[in-house]
Amino acid sequence: MSENASPNKDEIFSKVLRAGRRTYFFDVRATQANDFYLTITESKKHENNNGDSYYKKHKIYLYKEDFERFKGIMDDVMDYIIKEKGEEVISDRHNPDFKKEEYKSAEIELEEKENNHNAFIDVNFDEI
Question: Is the pTM of the predicted complex or chain greater than 0.85?
Fold first, then answer.
């Protein structure tokens, strides 16, 4: 082990947010100069075709000089989302009655075709 390496580098400070199939890890780590930075890791559970599970991870490194701007932009973006769409979660995962727009329009089109088809079927040939 080199002199600059910290034996507990990964254990400086951590918080975990479990959110369904996703888990977010907020970890404080140390630079070689022993300054701190933040890593945010998203870990998402997936399954192979054979049913075996595996995790995909995405990581962001955030350094102190960017904290204020990052936090400000995050606040702005989150406020915008809440203002535009409210706090209610709208998705098929959280609401089993939710239908995606493409499926809604396809269902409407199918209903119209069925209605038009039924109109032809209901023709009374005795009147001709």
Answer: no
